[in-house]
Amino acid sequence: MDAIQLKQKAAEKAITYVKSGMTVGLGTGSTAYWAIQFLGEKVKQGLDIQCIATSQQSDDLARSLGIPMTRFADISTIDITIDGADETTCTRQLIKGGGAALLREKIVAAATDFYIIIVDEQKVVDKLGKFKIPIEVVPFGYESTIRKIQQLGAKASVRLTKEGNVLVTDNHNYIVDADFGLIDDVDILHKNINEIVGVVENGLFINMASIVVVAHADGTIEVLH
Q1: Domains recognised in the chain with CATH numbers
Q2: Nearest to 14 by CA among 67, 110, 85
Q3: Of these four, 33, 45, 67, 82, which has the most CB atoms within 10 Å of its CB?
C-alpha cells in the first residue's frame, strides 16, 4: 500500500468510534484530511454530529463537505478528536505541529474525552526527536526567544514558507523548529521549553492520546492503547 492508502485505512478505522450525538474535534494535516472526508460522507448518510476544527484549513474543508461546525462557547466538552502526528512512540507520546497548527490542536486535545491519533507505521518510533519539535512563539522578540531555545541545546530556526517569508499561524504567531536530537526526558524538555518567555506552546503532546491507530504497509491496522 502507498502512503495515501495507509492514511485512508487509519482514518476509516478512527471514524468507527464516532457516533451520532457527539461533538468531534477535527485535526489538521494530510492524515486528518481523510478522516474529515469520511466524516463528510457519514454526515450525508445521516450521522448527527457537530465539530470543532484545529485549523482554518480543516474548518473550511469540513464546511465544504456539509459538516455542522460549532464553537467552544457553545459546548462543555469534546467527545472525540481525530488527528495525526509527526511522530509517536508505542506508549503514545507524540510530536505534532508539522502543519503549524499545534496550538489549536493542543487546545482541542486538552478539551477532548477520547483523543485518537492516526498514523502510518513510518511515524512510530522508539524515541521521539528525529522530527524537529515545532514551537509556537509570539512574533515580538522572536529572535530572542529562539536564542533561549538554543540555550536548551537545540538547533533552532523560524519556519519559512515556500516563498521564503516567515510562516504565520492561524493565531498570528510564528513557528520555530527546534532540533534537540533524540529526547531522553520529554516531560522535562516540555516544561523547559514552555517556561521560556515568548513561547506560546510546543509540539510535545505528552500523555494526551487515548489510542493511536497505526496502518501497516501489509494492510493491517494496529491500535496502541
Answers
A1: 3-125+206-224 (3.40.50.1360), 133-200 (3.30.70.260)
A2: 85
A3: 82
